[in-house]
Amino acid sequence: MRFIVITLGAVLLGACTAPAARKATAPPHAIVGVEEPQLNADYWIDRQSHPSRVILDAAAIAAQNRRLVETDASVHDLAALPATLPRATIAGWVEDLSSRPDKPLYDERGEPVPAATLDALVADANVAAIPDATPVRYGLVVRRADLRAFPTRLRVFTSRGDTDIDRFQESALFPGTPVALVHASRDGRWWFVASPLYAAWIEKDHVAEGERAQVLGYADKEPHLVVVGTAARTVHTPERPDVSELQLDMGVRVPVLAQWPADRPVNGQHPYTSHVIELPARDANGRLEFVPALLPKTNETSSDYLPLTAAHLLQQGFKFLGERYGWGHSYNARDCSGFVSEIYRSFGVTLPRNTRDMAVSPALNRLAFTERDDAATRLAALRALEAGDLIFIPGHVMMVIGHVDGEPYVIHDTTGISYRNDKGEMTRVHLNAVSVSPLTPLLLNENTSYIDRIYSIQRIRK
Q1: Cis peptide before 37 (omega within 30 of 0)
Q2: What stretches of 206-262 adopt beta strand conformation (E)?
């Protein structure tokens, strides 16, 4: 989520209307076209012709993931990195992300961020210290951690009083994510890392440095569990605070210590009510070690990735319904692209991190639109879509959940929507959450609908 990219908050000044703005009376909750039964996944599952039919099997998903690594420039293949990286590569990553903002920014109190502060942040990125060649080091993320545009916790915003979208927040990484450690901040407290889907700054105490084989091999350990609820948490563990109540988000995969003796406590607790899992941790020197932890069996987990079916897609998406919108995974939540990525991650499907990359990825089954495509062409395409298909307008992605009387409906993580009420007036609803919407009434502004701005549809299917 680059600073210079058009952001969701900037793009979604409204929702969209069909080519001819559809007027509709909103129910008591004020969301046009949405009735209470439609806020349940079962409503949409019941409308599917073949809800349990497998869309892509495990082999097809693996092939698509390989294709993503091979063809998508936004993805980093850590296993293919050379032993050393040239200065130009690392400096390019850092300067692309940590260039000095050229527009006014405000802090959480609404005060302008001083120019001297911005200059210091650029200096903290420490580009001048990047050597001609840097040996690549590796690490595993040990807890959910923010990725930042600069090596700082400073939150900044484009306008006073609007403190939802922190312009320095890029994304988040989850426990067990491998990273290449390629550069350090001037104060030594931050790594600039390349993760499989993003390159940005992360606080050093969220990463344990290990040997390449240790780091890259963690994801292949068997047997394993996959988190299929919105999140799972390990038990409270006074003996090991670093793995106590650790959050594992949807789609996170963790190894299981299946041979753990049934009568042997784990961190002071009998394991029979939990899964004994293996987590990465930092030792006293910041080095990688693997430690046992207990994941209660009451958490929603699966022994493998879920089968990719329409029913499962809908169930997974609706588990997030009502969650607060979190730009760049802030607020311990997620944004529009994070939302759809984590749904698909629970099936083992990897998607690019940002909407701009996801929308054009050559690894997926894309339908592209240009200005030459009229409204009728776009509507015809929309009415042929199926649950799980992804629709893109600039800065935003939505997932199709079905159709009602020819009207396509979507679930999306959004700041808000706009539409014309029964008097023809444009109405703005501040949602700031994972929400259900009909598509054709939604407006970007008085003259432009979402449908007018659809430029890509991606189908994760054959």
Answers
A1: no
A2: 207-210, 224-227, 231-233, 247-249, 253-255
Return the SS3 of 247.
Answer: strand
State the pLDDT confidence band at 384, using cuts at 50, 70 and 90.
very high
Four-CA torsion 266, 267, 269, 274, nearest 10 degrees: -50
pTM of the predicted structure, to 2 decimals: 0.92
Residue for token pair 């129910």? 27
Number of other residues whose CB lies within 10 A of the CB of residue 92: 12
Question: Nearest 5°: phi and psi at 4?
Answer: -85, -5
Q: Which residue has the tokens 């493998």?
A: 304
> Average pLDDT in the 145-168 region?
96
Measured distance CA(374)–CA(341) in Å, rounded: 29
CB of 114 closer than 8 Å to CB of 165: no
Q: Tokens 């089968």 map to which residue?
A: 307
Each residue's pLDDT tens digit, 286-320? 999 999 999 999 999 999 999 999 999 999 999 99
Decide: 433 and 439 in contact? Cβ < 8 Å. Answer: no
Euclidean distance between CA atoms 426 and 21, whole angstroms = 10
* Position 10 pLDDT exceeds 60: no
Rounded (5°) CA angle 10-11-13: 80
Whole-number Å distance between alpha carbons of 115 and 187 = 20
What's the confidence (pLDDT) of residue 29?
Answer: 61
Length of the chain counted residue by residue: 462
CATH topology of domain 224-302: SH3 type barrels. (2.30.30)
pLDDT of residue 20: 39
SS3 58: helix
Model pLDDT, residue 423: 87
Nearest in space to 105 (alpha carbons), one of 167, 157, 67: 157
Q: Is the dihedral of CA 169, 171, 176, 180 positive or negative?
A: negative
Can you give the pLDDT at residue 462?
84
What is the DSSP annotation of 91-102? HHHHHHHSPPP-
Write out the CATH class of domain 8-58+306-459: alpha beta
- Using one digit for the tens of pLDDT, what is the confidence trace for 207-243? 999 999 999 999 999 999 999 999 999 999 999 999 9
Q: Where are the domains of the chain?
A: 8-58+306-459, 74-217, 224-302
Residue 41 φ/ψ, nearest 5 degrees: -60, -35
Cα 326 to Cα 112, 336, 389, distances in angstroms: 23, 9, 22
Q: Is the pLDDT of residue 256 over 50?
A: yes
